[in-house]
Amino acid sequence: MNFVALRMLTGDRAKYLGLIFAIAFSTFLLENQTSIFAGILSRTASQIKDVPEASVWVMDPATQYFEETKPLKETDLLRVRGVEGVEFAVRLFKSNPVARTASGRFSQTVVMGLDDATLIGVPRTMVLGSWERLNEPDAVVIDRAGYALLFPGEPLELGRRLEMNDHQARIVGISEAKPPFVNFPVLHARYSVAVQFQGRERQQMSFVVGRPVPGLSAETLARRLEERTGLRARTSHEFSWDCILYYMKHTGIPVNFGITISIAVIVGLVVSGQTFYLFTVEHLRQFGALKAIGVSDRRLAGMIMLQAAMVGFIGFALGTGMAALFFEFFSRQLPTRGIILMWQNVVGVGVLMLLVVLAASLLSLRRVWVLEPAVVFRG
């Protein structure tokens, strides 16, 4: 009977391929949009993830996310260091000055000022040069995408100069820093150098980043720091989610992607389900003939489930393959680097398509179970 079921399925090539295409297209669209959505939102926490040495971030109590900072007092660093359980705590400066090249090209940037003594937060993955050279005067490390933006079409080269706030910066390294939410160049410099790139303010320190002593969790230390200093303290994981939730709440990104994802779900449910249902209805005569020769309803149900499983599996595999090829290509492009096909999305879409196929199968089964064989032969 399984052979008969598969022959019925593949006998009409147009409908067979149409079923597979509908499921494959829905799978591709869902995996594509949900992965891009997750990838874009994860970029809002890129600069937090670029400081893997620290697991606790201390900031002004009113700070909501990474891009919104209010400078801390220098004494706040000493207060944090004085709390029991802090293994280390260092200052971190973040600003967005405009960088200009000698040719006149300019762009807003993300400048990260790292503690002069420890350079905690420096990008470890280098494309060219060395982060240790940040100890040289006016030295900065720029990310590869930022270099391509400021020096388009030019080969990677060290020693180039940038001007920020009437101060000269010399590129001593090109890194693979995580892409920011907006594709601004990401520059790393020593704290004492970075603060010169922004207009001088009475207070400069954006964050204090630190780590608990062994045996103490980051969550416990963060709550202790809030209690003892009155500042806001978040673990790296908590702060990353603060950024993601801020953008979800205050931007139209979730709505735009939600509309596309909803369309994909509707396409999957309506087109795939309806096509499979119509396929079964058009083969009622064959199912009626099988019932007439004694094939049980249970066996017919197995045949329909086999047909549904086959088109569902092939369609899902093709759609996932298309999505994998898409991300394999675009994840190598500078503007879309770091946006990948997430396995969680593949699993979630797989479950959703399984439910679609099951729903279509159940609708089809109902027509077959209530079918009277005599009605088929009467026509």
Structure commentary:
- The chain is an alpha+beta fold and 379 residues long.
- It contains 13 helices and 12 strands.
- Strand 8 and strand 9 (167-175) form a beta hairpin.
Layout of SSEs?
Elements: H1 2-11, H2 13-43, H3 46-49, E1 56-59, H4 74-81, E2 86-95, E3 98-100, E4 106-108, E5 110-114, E6 126-129, E7 139-143, H5 144-150, E8 161-164, E9 167-175, E10 186-190, H6 191-194, E11 207-212, H7 218-229, E12 232-235, H8 236-250, H9 253-282, H10 284-292, H11 297-330, H12 343-369, H13 373-378
Compact summary:
With 379 residues, the protein is an alpha+beta fold.
H/E order of the elements? Answer: HHHEHEEEEEEHEEEHEHEHHHHHH
What kind of sheet is the major sheet? 10 strands, mixed
Radius of gyration: 29 Å
Which structural class do the helices and strands define?
A: alpha+beta
Count of β-strands: 12
Q: So what's the overall shape?
A: elongated
Percentage of residues in strands: 15-25%
Distance between the termini: 24 Å
Q: How many H/I helical runs?
A: 13
Q: Would you identify the regions where 5 or more consecutive residues have pLDDT less than 50?
A: none
Mean pLDDT: 86
**Relative helix content:** 40-55%
Key words describing this protein structure:
12 strands, 16% strand, single chain, two-stranded antiparallel sheet, ten-stranded mixed β-sheet, 13 helices, alpha+beta, 379 residues
